[in-house]
């Protein structure tokens, strides 16, 4: 009887292993077969994902989608952008409507363990803040007692706001709206006294206001909000592709590889790290089951991490955010490429 149970258990394990093997690589194979990457992005936040006057999606998140498409398909234009609200985003990924979610999504423990999803790597470090009208006279969070605060439901921002106000014996009334643009409209119209969300989003929203100088982002940050791409949990191969594509952009900045010099560096560089990164040595592409030029294609498409940040969020953009925590570790930031060897 014991032997029968043992045989049955081994057979069950075999079924599980076989099922896992059958699923492995499903997303990567699917993207290659259809020739297009379905990438979930925000419905519209300047600096992250917002169509320009010609309908072309612009921003950090959309360019990261293009980087993944370039790495997998060799062409950054092979992307279908799927705009999603905070409430929609995880369901769209779980159901297979999108291949990857790159939409200002905070990497947190419960999301990583409870949703059947996997959080890949941080591409931006942020923190929760608040924006108020300048004429309110409020200069710190203590002055927000009793305010109506616009928040988006289903976000970490909703949770950390409630936690902070409760902990500090402050009162507030939430006004919940899915679209951040609706929150921006409500603040300008006086329907709420403040917006609570991550500081980069506050700066992005303010840059589009009719009178941005009439609004102030308070200096305090009440949470850690590392953003990163999210994939389904059942596909380790695809997880690796997305994680290492983001890492390659950071590595490129560390090594001084740019969109402009990548081609020459690929031909002439003697540095082994550069040769591996750009595919002159094919070992990294082989590890991901991609073309040897996967990272080279991504860098040529969107630039290294510093180029990407400065073009979408940096000091010379309307959003005007300094690098800060998103600078390289060698300059006092948190951006640190894992060794690619």
TrEMBL record:
Residues 1-24 form the signal peptide. CDD domains: PBP2_BztA (cd13692). SUPFAM superfamilies: Periplasmic binding protein-like II (SSF53850). Residues 40-265 form the Solute-binding protein family 3/N-terminal domain. Keywords: Signal, Transport. Coiled coil: none annotated. SMART domains: PBPb. Gene3D superfamilies: Periplasmic binding protein-like II (3.40.190.10). Pfam families: SBP_bac_3. The keyword tRNA processing does not apply. The keyword Signal applies. Belongs to the bacterial solute-binding protein 3 family. This is Amino acid ABC transporter substrate-binding protein.
